[in-house]
């Protein structure tokens, strides 16, 4: 089986990366300069200091047994125990040391694999349905198109310098098992008048702001795949938003241009490609070599377990006398030793025998039925739980807060807790085998929670002033040509409730499986309503003194905190905290509007409306009030006295501070207007916590001092801020506030405590584009010198 073609310029690019790493080691360049080159090579920094994750391009999930064995050998050579299968059908190697990166990249290239394009603003790994070529319902095998398109795309220089990532997907039928309808560019195989071709979707994608793809072209000939992709890439390259990475994907470009203008620009590029006679893809069908004559069939070692395994994981192919076999890999992790043994064992079956799935499993293919005993005996000895119900192979999770810098919750640990509870539940899990459960550690959807039957995305909630790990709950996704819709939000639960929540939901569903064709029909008819009720049942948690366990995430040995979010991502959970108060505001307004409360309750509701409106934005000013009085006092100081909120509302602060409920009742309209003004102010806040209406200079903190002109001449910072004793993430917020007062190019020095503050804050500042000029330890604290970014 021939893989994708690695472009000849890759050697020079690897050499350049090597030189940059050497310069960094010598202190000649900054980590930021190295990052700009290593990320497009699919190399990301992990939470653990000086360790990296390396992502290997495996088009359509394809990898040969020899390649798998060699990848495992490379990992073992550098002391890496595990290999990870991703939701985009790639392999990842974690905990790689900087000094080993280039050597590993070169060794991978020798076996026909590249990491280039595994990250950054590049053409990413092209995915396809894992059973392409063997599915009885497919129009034709789309794998060769994914391979050929990859070879052409990664050979073009502009594929490495796009406004944002660019994802392409192929599906072999309207079932859309390759997720073409939620990709930047999606192709669904069609046959029209006996001619092979594709239906084309564009500008879809999962993320914090997910979008279903738009139908771009009803049908194109198969020979136009490259011309269409290149045209879309050109539109993206020319007009995409390079200033704001949060609004830079192709779907945002479609929104900003509008439907008509986007299609117009696409057609201009498409016609140009046709006029230039852009060569079509060269398609080489993927052949199966057959099994070695030396391999003898075996009898299964346990007939009863073999029969159970066969019924759950073995499927017939469209090729007579051949089967495919799913290998469930728990959360996508396989040890390097297991991977090496699997690759070695599969070698006699030929190259076209293995694919990786979006559910983070392995799919064996083209296995002659007579060798099922061989496969079973091998897997039973090497893998754990190969005969378990199939639902275990359909629970997936992103990396979560364990390694990912964006992670809020420990999503993998939550998934393991769910699996453990299911194993002890006594439920008939075979009847729940069609359910997909996807978990993301934050809203960014790397765990594809919006494409699941039951999805979860991590967030932070607060009870009585204490943070705890929680999840938004989603249900009812449909992925199908012309009918795709994302899962809808049905509620939120504490992380520690997830196993019981899932178990209760399955218990409800299993009583009704005979009434419905599948889980999707059940969710559409009544399941989402049941889930909303279940979320309400699991909404509350005990107080901290009653049960501290709820304030620890799964398998965590320290209290849940946003401070644990590693460098570069301190602000990941701030908006969640604001949203908590905003939800209280909306709920209080709803109750007041219903006009069904007594006078006493109404007084308290008006007080609550002021309280939550005041507290909502205090974190943007680095304030975490210790009591209710401080909420009103600090809000007045930072939002009314500075002119952000009308001075006419100052009296409300006094009334609330003294709990003058009767007067608040008399001024109900003023309370309502105040609350709406605060919400409007929030809507105008940018990602750096700045508001459109400029505030006067803040009163300088007593620990802040202006440095003398003599010190400035000696290249000392102009402003120093002492943040010792300030915990994460408030120290980061205070740093942002200080930077907002400075001009581009100005210098700020901050003092931070050892431990989490020095580990978190500099990276978060750097992630926002500012330069860390110097970082040094002074006694028991750290001095960090920051140059404000030049816009």
Could you explain the architecture of this structure?
- Strands 1-2-4-3-12 form a 5-stranded antiparallel β-sheet. The chain has a 5-stranded mixed β-sheet with strand order 5-6-7-8-9, with helices on one face. The chain has a 5-stranded mixed β-sheet with strand order 15-16-17-18-19, sandwiched between helices.
- It folds into 6 domains: 10-110, Sulfite Reductase Hemoprotein, domain 2 (Alpha-Beta Complex), CATH 3.90.480.20; 134-275, Sulfite Reductase Hemoprotein, domain 1; 303-332 and 347-389, no CATH class; 393-447 and 467-551, Sulfite Reductase Hemoprotein, domain 1, CATH 3.30.413; 570-683; 705-787, Translation Initiation Factor IF3.
- Mean pLDDT is 89; it is low at 566-573 and 694-717.
- Helices cover 36% and strands 17% of the residues.
- It starts with 9 loop residues before the first helix and ends with a strand.
- By secondary structure, it is an alpha+beta fold.
């Amino acid at each position: 089986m021939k893989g994708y073609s690695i472009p000849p310029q890759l050697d020079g690019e690897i050499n350049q990366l090597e030189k940059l790493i050497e310069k960094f080691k010598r202190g000649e360049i900054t980590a930021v300069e190295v990052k700009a080159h290593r990320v497009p090579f699919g190399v990301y920094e992990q939470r653990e200091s000086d360790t990296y994750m390396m992502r290997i391009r495996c088009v359509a999930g394809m990898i040969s047994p020899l390649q798998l064995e060699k990848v495992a050998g490379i990992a073992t050579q550098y002391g890496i125990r595990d290999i990870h299968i991703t939701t985009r059908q790639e392999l990842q190697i974690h905990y790689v040391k900087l000094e080993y990166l280039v050597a590993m990249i070169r060794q991978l290239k020798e076996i026909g694999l590249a990491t280039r394009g595994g990250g950054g603003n590049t053409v990413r790994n092209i995915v396809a349905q894992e059973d392409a070529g063997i599915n009885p319902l497919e129009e034709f095998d789309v794998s060769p198109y994914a391979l050929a398109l990859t070879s052409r795309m990664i050979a073009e220089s502009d594929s490495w310098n796009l406004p944002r990532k660019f994802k392409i997907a192929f599906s072999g039928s309207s079932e859309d098992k390759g997720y073409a309808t939620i990709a930047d560019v999606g192709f669904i195989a069609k046959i029209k008048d006996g001619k092979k071709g594709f239906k084309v979707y564009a500008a879809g994608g999962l993320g914090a702001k997910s979008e279903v793809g738009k139908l771009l072209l009803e049908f194109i000939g198969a020979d136009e795949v490259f011309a269409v992709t290149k045209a879309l890439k050109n539109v993206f390259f020319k007009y995409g938003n390079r200033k704001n990475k949060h609004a830079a994907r192709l779907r945002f470009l479609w929104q900003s241009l509008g439907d008509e203008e986007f299609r117009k620009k696409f057609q201009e590029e498409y016609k140009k490609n046709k006029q230039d006679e852009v060569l079509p893809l060269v398609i080489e069908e993927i052949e199966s070599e057959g099994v070695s004559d030396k391999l003898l069939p075996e009898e299964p070692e346990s007939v009863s377990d073999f029969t159970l395994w066969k019924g759950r994981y073995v499927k017939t192919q469209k090729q007579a006398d051949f089967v495919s076999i799913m290998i469930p890999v728990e959360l996508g992790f396989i040890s390097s030793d297991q991977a090496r043994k699997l690759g070695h064992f599969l070698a006699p079956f030929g190259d076209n025998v293995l694919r990786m799935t979006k559910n983070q499993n392995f799919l064996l293919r083209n296995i002659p039925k007579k060798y099922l005993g061989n496969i079973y005996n091998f897997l039973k000895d090497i893998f754990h739980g190969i005969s378990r119900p199939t639902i275990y192979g359909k629970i997936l999770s992103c990396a979560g807060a364990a390694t990912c810098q964006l992670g809020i919750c420990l999503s993998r640990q939550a998934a393991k807790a769910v699996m453990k509870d299911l194993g002890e539940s006594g439920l008939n899990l075979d009847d729940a085998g069609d359910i997909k459960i996807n978990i993301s550690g934050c809203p960014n959807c790397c765990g594809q929670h919006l494409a699941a039957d039951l999805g979860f995305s991590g967030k932070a909630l607060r009870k009585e002033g204490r943070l705890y790990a929680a999840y938004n709950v989603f249900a009812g996704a449909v992925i199908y040509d012309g009918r795709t819709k994302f899962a809808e939000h049905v509620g939120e639960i504490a992380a520690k409730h997830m196993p019981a929540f899932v178990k209760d939901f399955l218990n409800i569903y299993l009583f009704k499986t005979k009434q419905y064709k599948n889980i999707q029909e059940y969710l559409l008819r009544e399941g989402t309503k049941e889930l909303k009720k279940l979320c309400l049942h699991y909404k509350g948690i005990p107080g901290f003194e009653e049960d501290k366990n709820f304030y620890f995430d799964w398998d965590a040995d320290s209290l849940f905190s946003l401070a644990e979010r590693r460098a570069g991502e301190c602000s990941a959970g701030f908006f969640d905290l604001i949203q908590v108060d905003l939800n209280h505001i909306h709920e209080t307004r709803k109750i007041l509007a219903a006009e069904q409360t007594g006078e006493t309750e109404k007084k308290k509701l008006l007080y609550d409306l002021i309280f939550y409106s005041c507290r909502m934005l205090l974190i943007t000013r680095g304030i975490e009030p210790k009591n209710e009085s401080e909420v009103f006092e600090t809000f007045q100081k930072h939002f009314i006295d500075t002119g952000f909120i009308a001075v006419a509302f100052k009296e409300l602060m006094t009334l609330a501070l003294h709990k003058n409920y009767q007067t608040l009742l008399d001024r109900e309209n003023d309370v309502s207007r105040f609350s709406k003004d605060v919400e409007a102010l929030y809507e105008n806040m940018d990602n750096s916590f700045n508001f459109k209406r400029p505030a006067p200079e803040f009163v300088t903190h007593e620990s802040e001092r202006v440095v003398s002109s003599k010190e400035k001449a000696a290249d000392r910072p102009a402003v120093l801020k002492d943040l010792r004793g300030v915990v994460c993430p408030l120290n980061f917020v205070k740093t942002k506030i200080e930077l907002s007062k400075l001009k581009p190019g100005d210098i700020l020095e901050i003092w931070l405590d050892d431990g989490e503050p020095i580990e978190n804050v500099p990276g978060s500042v750097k992630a926002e584009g500012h330069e860390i000029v110097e970082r040094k330890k002074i006694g028991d604290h750290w001095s960090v010198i920051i140059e404000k970014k030049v816009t």
